[in-house]
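Service request form, structural biology core

Requester: graduate student, group of Dr. S.
Request type: structure prediction, single chain
Budget code: on file
Notes: please return the result as structure tokens.

Sequence provided:
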Amino acid sequence: MIRLAILGDIGSGKSFVAKSFGYPVFNADFEVGKLYQKDKKIFKKLNKVLPQYITSFPVQKKALSEAILKDKKNLSKIIKIVHFEVRKKMKMFLRKNKNKKIVILDIPLLLENKIYLKNDILIFVQAKKKDIFKRLKKRKNFNKKLYDNFKKIQLTLDLKKKKSHFIIKNNFTKKTINKNIKIILSKILQ
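Core staff response, request fulfilled:
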């Protein structure tokens, strides 16, 4: 099984690129969202460490945002609880897809949390800062301060780019993405 890991800035189009490969995708953000909505165990753990913010089930993203904005240490508390469960979900995904030729890992903190393997193929999605911000501002509940807090826990984009085997320059058109994917797959599957 070939594992492709998608890296890049917040809002650079990583998830779109991941889906465009046409292979099974493990999307960590999607899994985190499911945990907040469906996992009472996660709620209880978050409620225990952040009782003034996490008061009802399902866990509201707004409450999490408030906790992070009030004290950036709260982000670490949240990650510590959620990360363990996301890793378990990823292991189940990999077991389920063990016979697939390729799987895609769309995990924002892949390098930071040392989730990658030595032979993973890292693909960096690069987009212009102004294009990213234009897209982020369209997102419901976009908060610049929250964005800045998340950026602080991430490795620099230069380092991620340097570690990557391939770079996809994303101008947010399907045609460009598909062309880049074809080139990458032709090199990987030689």
